[in-house]
Amino acid sequence: MSIYSTLTPEQFDAIGQELDAIRNREIADLGEKDEKYIRNLIKRQRQLEVAGRGLLMVGFLPPAWLAGVACLSAAKILDNMEIGHNVMHGQYDWMGDKNISSRNFDWDNTCTNTAWKQTHNYEHHTYTNVLDKDHDIGYGILRMSDEQEWEPRFLLNPILAVILSTFFQHFVAVQSLKLEDYLIYKTKTKEELKAEFKPTWKKMRKQLVKDYLMFPALAGPFAPFVFAGNVAANLARNLWSSQVIFNGHFPEEVEQFPESVLQDESRGHWYVRQMLGSANFEGGRLMHIMSGNLSFQIEHHLFPDIPAHRYAKISPEVKAICEKYGLPYNTGSFMRQSLSVWKRIVKLSLPGKGKGSDKGLRGKVVSLMGESQSAVRKAA
User: Fold this and answer.
1) Distance between CA atoms of 17 and 223, rounded to whole angstroms?
2) Spatial contact of 309 and 136, defined as CB atoms under 8 Å apart
3) Residue 278 in 3-state DSSP?
4) What PANTHER family does the database record attribute to this sequence (predicted)?
């Protein structure tokens, strides 16, 4: 039974107040050190991109090509993870700089700013791990919950997960379209899909032209080396960012929730859901930066609008709150969390119930919503 079902209303309120106090303190402390951090990071990211694209231009020399791929991969990862993701959460809107604004920022990715903020900032962060509300549970492709009815196509769960990771930026770009509604469930018309796809295709086309036409053309006879280098850098970015995100949401111990928990959900309940529905992974400072500090996924879900470089300082306090109220603080090595994720992916490819996602559904529904045991058995 989940700890969620054993907490009293007073404990939920106390948790909410303690976490609100942390958030208010950090927001009040925003200033020069945060501005210096993001500006220096953007500067380093641009230097890496210039170096990477320059080295790929002389890619006929193998060491230069490898160095170019490494630099460009790092630049794309930094742009997407520690800069783009966090800027579009509004973590630096207080600076008043239109170039570092959640409204205006345009990242090196095929997903539009608008679509990302809708599917990620609003849907995912509001309804974190709530079945049928959070589209990030499986992205409409994978079976990541045993509460989801099994279909024969889910036998391909591991293969589909590899494809999703390989082309992650493109799947993220079309996520807001909810293609399964057109391709599988037939609840969306072709005309509706075409209208929704127009801005997405414009952004995808821009990125494809830049990486696979413009920069190779600038290299003249060395175009194939630049083309291949861009493919490799995009692949590295996709594989890394997808695994970082998977590790923060899909380890077996991470809980998922029925839609009924949203009824009359208090601030304290929301905070607890974020902690139970997220996981961290451990590493050094470089690991945290390259993951966009989503290695502190628990802290990010609690405080998505606080600059992510502050999560390392906040995490001991969050862990202490978890210990105080008997809540799990799910953390482990990158490899441990990755293995747990892929174990879940394989397990849920088969018919029947898995072992992670229903861990606390019954207890939560009984405690919070007062449903009968027979209804709980039916939901489970």
Assistant:
1) 58
2) no
3) coil
4) ACYL-COA DELTA-9-DESATURASE, DESB (PTHR19353:SF84), FATTY ACID DESATURASE 2 (PTHR19353)
Q: Which helix (H) or strand (E) holds 6?
A: none
Token readout for 267 is 């601030």
SS3 257: strand
d(CA 277, CA 270): 10
The rounded distance, in Å, linking the Cα atoms of 257 and 276 is 10
Q: For residue 364, which of 14, 150, 130, 145 has the smallest C-alpha distance?
A: 130
pLDDT, one tens digit per residue, over 2-12 is: 677 789 999 99
Q: Global pTM?
A: 0.90
Neighbours of 283 (CB within 10 A): 14
Here the tokens at position 63 are 């060491």
Tell me which residue of 73, 90, 79 sits closest to 42, measured CA to CA. 79
Distance separating alpha carbons of residues 140 and 284, to the nearest angstrom: 33
Give the pLDDT mean for 263-287: 96
Please say if the pLDDT value at position 200 is more than 90.
yes
* Per-domain boundaries in the chain: 3-367
CA 97 to chain centre: 25
In angstroms, the CA 350 to CA 50 distance is: 46
State pLDDT tens for residues 150-186: 999 999 999 999 999 999 999 999 999 999 899 988 9
Tokens of 27: 């927001």
Return d(Cα 265, Cα 269) in angstroms, integer. Answer: 6
∠ CA 111-116-118, rounded to 5° = 140
What Rg do the C-alpha atoms of the chain give, in angstroms? 22
SS3 250: coil
Residues 321 and 270: beta-carbon distance below 8 Å: no
Going from the C-alpha of 270 to that of each of 83, 124, 255, 300, 365, the distances in angstroms are 26, 13, 13, 13, 15
Instruction: Compute the distance between CA of residue 209 and CA of residue 366 in angstroms, rounded to an integer.
Output: 53
CA distances from 273 to 92, 128, 326 (A): 26, 8, 14
